[in-house]
Amino acid sequence: MTLDAKYETGVVWQDFQHKQLIDLFKQVKEARKNKKDQNLYRYTIAFLAMYVNHHFKLEEQYMEKYEYPDKENHMKEHQGFIKELKLFRLDNFDYSEQGSDDLVKRMRNWILDHILGDDKSLGQYILAVEKNQEGTTPPQES
Ligand SMILES: [Fe+2]
Ligand SMILES: [Fe+2]
Fold first, then answer.
1. Domain range for residue 24?
2. How many domains, in total, are found in the chain?
3. Which ligand is nearest to the CA of 11?
4. For residues 45 and 61, what is the distance between their CA atoms, to the nearest angstrom?
5. CA 55 – ligand 2 centroid, Å
């Protein structure tokens, strides 16, 4: 599990989940190598969609709880990605090399860009708030 240090936000759960997400793209690449394994491909895409939803929700809970000023914009970015991923899954239920490449390149790059921009800003904000409010309870996962 490796992710270049420049992608680290400094928030432990956020960094952990970002690494997990990038690992899922690696699994899609693996599934491409083993073309016979249609199930691995489908399972990985389904898991990726589930994990992305979970991850975005958690970030949004923090934005809500800590009254993050750029919340609306950040949430719009998340919604845009979820929509794209849904469309991708409709068009790519069955494995294809092209679909697999598209997912790995386009969506992985989207996530990496998102981490470098929006998520790093959010991470800095979370760290600053938590530094000022030591001892408060973070949002609970629902
Ligand atoms: Fe994120
Ligand atoms: Fe985000």
1. 19-131
2. 1
3. 1
4. 24
5. 8
